[in-house]
Amino acid sequence: MLNNFPLWPEQASTMARNVDALYIFLLIVCGMMTLLIFICLAYFAARFRHRPGVRAEQIEGSTPLEITWSTIPFLVFMVIFAWGTVVYFKERTPPADSTEVYVVAKQWMWKLEHAEGQREINELHVPVGRDVKLIMTSQDVIHSFYIPAFRMKQDVLPGRYTVEWFRATKPGVYHLFCAEYCGTQHSGMVGDIVVQEPAQYEAWMNGGSLGPLSATGEKIFAELGCVTCHRTDAQGRGPNLQGVFGKPVQLADGRTVTADENYLRECILDPGAKRVKGFQPIMPTFQGLVTEEQVNALVAYIKSISAGKPGEGAKATASATTPQAVQHNGSQVQ
């Protein structure tokens, strides 16, 4: 019904109806309260208007009335809070088997790379009916990834990852905007979300690729010499990375953190921030030495060997002993 309403954006994701239902409820509550207030104002203005010869009376408070007008709004607000909480956590909790896409925002474009290796600029192809997880970071300033038809908007921040997910419900081309003012050409930072039927999407995906993103990360991992310290035989000067993603990690300062995407990213760019217990602070920082796309590839590779995917991570062995590898000894990335 709302899809035919000219002022209402098209509903094209599983979350759209939930967001719209909550928004409509808020509009109804606000409208009813506004109407009630104006009716009361008009009634009291007429009922208690000044009249010649009639003296004003002091009206004492009514405890039942005050309890009523305090309790009813409180209950309404609690309904809004609970409803909003459910919608929020659904939007912020991607399903475990989601298809992953890495997004790098840059003045003034969107750079996107699928886990399968396909790269796009200002355009994202996704299949209908499949959960898609966006792992996003900014190369410069704060941006905001906004798809009105999906009712999703997530700030994209420099120096860290933010995550959003969606499941498109019907094929089509939907607008992508930057919803955070990011500079003089902010209004031109737009793009398209192309939702295709599964067969069309597979044909597009097979149309050309540089190989899986994790394979690119494995190559970078070897080129930077990471394999020298992060060995699989427990003899390296850095921790073994296999199976670490998503698991708790004990730090040298006694804290325990979860090895998520942000943790892996921080360990690559600022290895001294969260040093792993039992290892010396000998890993150099790669801040400024690797691009955002390379960081994404490294994170994807570490996640792939943590997932135990066959054939991935075979190069991360103790056999790498080149001079280039030796100069990049490390210990903090776990």
Q: Gist?
A:
This protein has 334 residues and is an alpha+beta fold. The chain contains eight helices and twelve strands.
Write the layout of secondary structure elements.
Elements: H1 16-47, H2 63-91, E1 99-106, E2 109-114, E3 119-121, E4 123-127, E5 131-138, E6 143-147, E7 152-156, E8 162-167, E9 172-178, E10 190-196, H3 198-205, H4 213-223, H5 226-229, E11 248-250, E12 256-258, H6 261-269, H7 292-306, H8 323-326
Parallel strand pairs: 1-5, 4-10
Antiparallel strand pairs: 1-2, 2-3, 5-8, 6-7, 6-9, 9-10, 11-12
Helix pairs in contact: 1-2, 4-7, 6-7
Sheet having the most strands: 5 strands, mixed
Proportion of strand residues:
15-25%
Separation of the first and last Cα atoms: 50 Å
**Rg calculated over all Cα atoms:** 27 Å
Structural class: alpha+beta
Order of helices and strands: HHEEEEEEEEEEHHHEEHHH
- The coarse silhouette is elongated
- Give the strand line-up of the largest sheet: 3-2-1-5-8
What helical percentage do the residues reach? 25-40%
Provide the residue-averaged pLDDT: 86
How many beta-strand runs? Answer: 12
Q: Return residue spans where pLDDT drops below 50 for at least 5 consecutive residues.
A: 310-334
Total number of helices: 8
